[in-house]
Amino acid sequence: MEAFLDxxxxxxxxxxxxxxxxxxxxxxGIILVAxxxxxxxxxKVTSLVxxxxxxIMPKSDPEQDGLLKLLIRPxxxxxxxxxxxxxxxxxxxxxxEDGTRYKSFIxxxxxxxxxxxxxxxxxxxxxxxxxxxxxxxxxxxxxVDDQIVLFFREAAKLLVIITSIxxxxxxxxxxxxxxxxxxLGIGGLAIALAAQDTLKNLLASFIIxxxxxxQVGDFINVGGTYGVVxxxxxxxxxxxxxxxxxxxxxxxxxxxxxxxNLSLRTFRRAKFHVGLTYGTTIEQIQNIIRDVQQYIDDxxxxxQDGLVKFEEFGDSSLNLMVLYYVETQDxxxxxxxxxxxxxxIMEIVAAHGSDFAFPTQTVHLQKEN
Length: 369
Fold this sequence. Notes:
By secondary structure, the protein is α+β, with helices and mostly antiparallel strands. The chain has helices at residues 2-12, 21-56, 64-88, 99-138, 144-172, 177-182, 185-194, 196-211, 251-255, 282-298, 331-351; strands at 15-16, 19-20, 219-222, 225-232, 236-241, 246-250, 259-261, 268-276, 307-313, 318-326. A 5-stranded antiparallel β-sheet has the order 6-5-4-3-7. A 3-stranded antiparallel β-sheet has the order 8-10-9, with helices on one face. Strands 1-2 form a two-stranded antiparallel ribbon.
């Protein structure tokens, strides 16, 4: 046994590329430990983060599984990057030409990767917070808080990314961030001019947020395009059209064009014409108008502003105008009401011995003597 231990100690002292076998064993050992325990450590860290969120938001009912799904992958990558970083620090590069500069370069790369992994984790935490806040917002009747959640998520992500970039520039590359920002000068002005459209859309997003011409979930008409607002971002608004396509509209276009928020109307209007045959008598027309008007006025989902009038003499029909307002915002309910009223109009016309006209022509032939 002693002989084996002595041989193993001698093996550990063997030098290869200016590093002992002991250093190489530490290198691979650290990486193997990280591979085997990264999932366990990730779950433990997620559990601690979840307890923190549960303490600061006790009424939000956060789900630990949701946080785990978001954090498990970036945390595992972070653990592996840290493991490889510490493993490389066990090796010596003194035998390599410019070994010190080489190791310094590797350290910079690893530091950047670590910052990127931490940024990834923070962004996933922001996503989790947004999900929790969105669930709380769903319990309220107002849609303003839903919009606030979207703005919070986008703004928080942007802040995390900018902070990470400044940290890399200042702490890793040892550059004076203040002097760098101050030295932008004309270059910064040129960038601002080049990005003026982006700035316009950013300002427009704040106008939409505070003025609230529409909210997420509203049915709007912009430039002749109808759709439901699904997301309001810093630069653009996403609309699900009636054709189920996903339309992206710059926010600046939304505030500078006529926009009809159809969700804010109190009624849906229905207007159409009913054409009766020319053989219909005055008394029949009057009775049909009276009964249709009475049915529309008595209908549960219509108001008293409905009108049924004999409007004009058509080419092939006597045209009645039918106008009424349905007290609903639901498109399906509106169609159901129209269908029931249309069926009733058919019954009333048939009950009074008349019929619906269709395009006809009467040709008179005159016999020559």
